[in-house]
Amino acid sequence: MNNEESPLVFFKEFRQKRLEIEANIETATNVDVVVALVQECIELQKHLNDSARFLPAYDVRQSQEHIKALRVKIDSKKSQLAPKKKFAFKGSKTKTKPKSESAVVPVASVEEYVSSKKAGFADMQDKTIELNQEEANDKDIELLNLSKCEVTIRGHPGSLHVKNLKDCTVNIGPISRSILLFDCENCTFQIASQQIRIHSSRECTFYIHVTSGAIIEDCKELQFGAYTWVYDGLDDDYVHSNLDRNNNKWDKVEDFYWQNPTLPSPNWKKIE
After folding, report:
1. Closest CA to 152 of 204, 197, 209, 191
2. Is the pTM value of this prediction over 0.70?
3. Apex CA 205: angle with CA 199 and CA 207, to 5°?
4. Which pLDDT belongs to residue 2?
5. C-alpha to C-alpha distance for 87 and 89, rounded to whole angstroms
6. What pLDDT was estimated at residue 96?
7. 6-28 as b/e: b if 16+ CB within 10 A
8. In what helix (H) or strand (E) does residue 192 lie, and over which residues does it extend?
């Protein structure tokens, strides 16, 4: 397994193990079983630590929060199954922790993450949005809460983060690291990157160049084809992004919400 394939393999293995632990928590009937699940969480944490060097920072944070959530569920289950105390000492000063202290610490929202970056557009409708090479090169690009907009970004950005786009057309030059998309509907994208993750999106069309395959989660009615956008300077942008133009796995889409290996996912299809 080479490094280029490692993130895809990690996501698949991590999700499978996480779901397995969650199922075992639900069906546990004694404390000993629950205690054994703590060790499985420790092993899952070790797997994340060992893999962090080749994972995008966002995915490391998200995986860490999944593990924290598992530990909270384990603690809750252990409390349910533990023998009930018959009495308490009258003078006990023990106080219950405030609920907020034991809750899972949430990942920073995309809105907060976007506000800390230098290039992006938010809360716009019926607009034509453009960035040239000088404005976009090596920067992290964010697109948030756009409706009926046409977005054109030439150059080689560092990464792309997208949330809540509706009825938009997005054309972007090759991106050197990763692309994350959330909650998009009825949009068309021309995007190129090493990694592409698509979450909770509907009725979108993607023309992509991706060297390690695309991943979709909780998506429906997506279409995929090869990246076709052409503009002056595209060749140079490919060179600077370090994307291999001869390696495009646009049709190797992994659907993490489809668990039947004998049948193709009904949530995406190739563009005929």
Report:
1. 191
2. no
3. 100
4. 46
5. 7
6. 40
7. ebbebbeebbebbeebeebbeeb
8. strand 188-193
Report the amino acid identity of residue 47: H
pLDDT (tens digit per residue) in 58-100: 777 888 888 888 888 888 887 887 665 444 444 434 344 343 3
Tokens standing for residue 139: 């920067």
Structure tokens belonging to residue 244: 């291999």
Q: Quickly count helices (H) and strands (E) in the chain.
A: 7, 14
Q: List, in order, residues 6 or more apart from 217 with CB less than 8 Å away.
A: 197, 198, 199, 200, 255, 256, 257
Give the mean pLDDT of 237-251.
93
Are the C-beta atoms of residues 170 and 189 closer than 8 Å to each other? yes
Query: Which amino acid, residue 182?
Result: F
Question: Helix H segments across the chain?
Answer: 6-27, 31-51, 57-81, 99-102, 110-115, 133-136, 234-241
**Residue 115 — pLDDT band, cuts 50, 70, 90?**
very low
Instruction: State how far the alpha carbon of 137 is from the alpha carbons of 130, 154, 155, in Å.
Output: 13, 8, 5
